[in-house]
Every structure is written in C-alpha cells, then in structure tokens.
Amino acid sequence: MSEEPRKGLFRRKPKDPNKKPGRLAQMKQVYELSAKHNKATPWLLAAAILGCTLLGLLAGLLFGGAVFTTILGFMVGLLLGMFMLGRFAETAAFAQMDGQPGAFGAVLNTARRGYLMDDKPIAIDPKSRDLVFRSTGRAGVVLLSEGPKGRSAKLLAKERKRHERILPNVPVHTFQGGNEDGQLKMKQVVPAVQKLPRKLNKNEVLAVRNRLAALGTQGTRPPIPKGIDPNKARPNHKAMRGR
Questions:
Q1: Contact 176/192 with Cβ under 8 angstroms?
Q2: Predicted TM-score of the model (pTM)
Q3: What are the start and end residues of every segment in region (Disordered) (predicted)?
Q4: What is the H or E stretch that residue 32 is in?
C-alpha cells in the first residue's frame, strides 16, 4: 500500500507582514516609483552609468591603466545613478502626495539633520481643516502651515504667538506650505529649514522639546505652562542616553 504524501511538507513559511523589505526590494520600489512618474528614468540612469564608464575608459587609453579607470568610471556612474534615482523618487513622491492632507507634514519630517518633528499636527482648524506642523532643532522651533495662504496665515500666526509666549528666548520660524505666491512648495521645504541659522545646542533642544510636550494640540491643549529659558534649563540626561 502506498502512503499518501504528507501535506504541507514543502509548504513555504508565510511572510511576516511586519518585516521590512530588504535593500534590493527597497531599491526596486524606488525605481518603479520613479519610472512611473518619469518615463525617461531608465534612459537617464543608463546614460549616467555608460557615460562615466566611457570617460573612464577614455582616460585609461590616454594615460594608461585602462582596466582600473574603466572600473572606476563604472563605480562613479553607479553613484551618480543612485543620486539621480533618489532625486527622481523624491520628485515622484511629492507629485503623488500633492493635494493630500498632511503632505507638507510628511515633507517636513524628512528634514533629519538635527530636527525632531511631532507625530501629529499641533493645530487643526475644525472648519477649514488647515493644519500646522512643528519641528524642533538647532535653529529653534519651525512651524509649517498647510492650506490656502490667507486662511492658514491666521492659524499660523496664532501658533507663533503661543510658542513665543511659552518660549520667549527660543527662535520661532514660520513657513507656509502650498502652491500660492509666497508659500513654499514641497521641494522647497527641507532646503528652507536647513538654511536656518543654528542657535541652540543639543541640551537646549532637548529642554525645548520637553517644554513643548506639554502643549498638546489645539482643542485638547492643557493650560499653557510658564515660559522657560533653555539656557538655564536642566536637560534630561536619561533621555539623552536613550533610557
């Protein structure tokens, strides 16, 4: 008598939905996103890699060491292609997010050089649904509004006064995000923030964030605490050590 084959003997393990994709999978996703919005993406990447490789070969034929210079040119081409792909993907992501609520907050969150952004908008207009986002860094507090210029300006000014009242010695910078004149487009947000002059050290930034944690969001905000001077505040050393 023949035995029945065991079911599930060679069954694949189910994929973990929480597992992050690998580096190659991430690169594939970035490339697909870029190619979807820019049909010339593969041609531009190929031109960068082949162009640098040919330049390396030409340099080797003229000065010697053609093999080394060709490989070097190819590697430079790969780096250039990676840089171009990142730019293309950023442009595609901005185009995909354009018009969606919270898009400017997502862009502000990409300003990683010493900035920490709040997970949610700090102010929401219940009628117009205009938003204000906040990020804290070495330049001080950055407030970014999302909505029509004239309408969101009132909400942004209100939040600026609120922050200046509780942080009298901390710079508060305001920007308007949008496509109208005088507003920052998505691609302009991060460069504008990173150009701000640095005024605070790491300990002062941490002290400011601890104070801002008591603010909450508009509508559910607790009583405003008294102002502090970050130069005299005592930093939370346990938090700085990651505990």
A1: no
A2: 0.60
A3: 1-23, 217-243
A4: helix 23-37
